[in-house]
Amino acid sequence: MKPLNRLVYLLILIVFLLMPHHMLASNSKENWTIGPWETQQMFAWGSDLLVVDFGSNGLWKYDGSWTKLSYLDPVGIIALSDSQLVVNFGSRGLWKYDGRSWEQIALGSVKADKVN
Fold first, then answer.
1. DSSP-assigned letters across all residues of 63-86
2. Which listed site, 1, 7, 78, 109, has its alpha carbon 20 to 30 Å from 64?
3. Could you give the 3-state DSSP secondary structure of residue 92?
4. Phi, psi of 2 (to 5 degrees)
5. Model's pTM, two decimal places?
6. What are the b/e assignments for 32-49, b being 16+ CB within 10 Å?
7. Quick one: which of 15, 54, 18 has its CA closest to 34?
8. pLDDT of residue 5
């Protein structure tokens, strides 16, 4: 990994840890229930996508149809742009998703209590 990329990812990690939880993903006071699944958090991503954390049922996106992004339950999510998500999977580390593939950007557990 290039030194500049490491610096960018380090800055993302610092922002992710220090940002208030309510800014990471909008989570209304009402939880949706879709089938037997209840949402943990959800937010708009880009102009026409909805990203939904269904807890132990994984992370999904909706763009007219449902697509499972990960079977893991995220601790926190932040959209860097219309094309990049950064997801904290707790002990599985911090990951970046570009709409097609995942890239791990930090190993191990990222402290979720630092975001609240």
1. SSSEEEEESS--SEEEEEETTEEE
2. 78
3. helix
4. -70, 150
5. 0.64
6. eeeeebebbbbbebeeeb
7. 54
8. 63
Question: Exposure of 13 by Cβ count < 10 A (0-12 exposed, 13-18 middle, 19+ buried)?
Answer: middle
Q: How far is 71 from 55, CA to CA, in rounded Å?
A: 9
11-to-18, 84, 110, 114 alpha-carbon distances in Å: 11, 15, 14, 15
Instruction: Name the DSSP class of 48.
Output: T
**Residue 52, C-beta contacts closer than 8 angstroms, at least 6 positions apart:** 32, 39, 41, 42, 59, 60, 61, 62
Token digits for 105?
Answer: 């950007």
| pLDDT tens-place values along the chain, 116 residues long | 555 566 666 656 555 555 544 444 444 445 566 667 777 778 788 778 888 888 888 999 888 888 899 999 898 888 888 788 889 998 899 999 998 999 999 887 666 554 43
The two structure tokens encoding residue 14: 């610092």
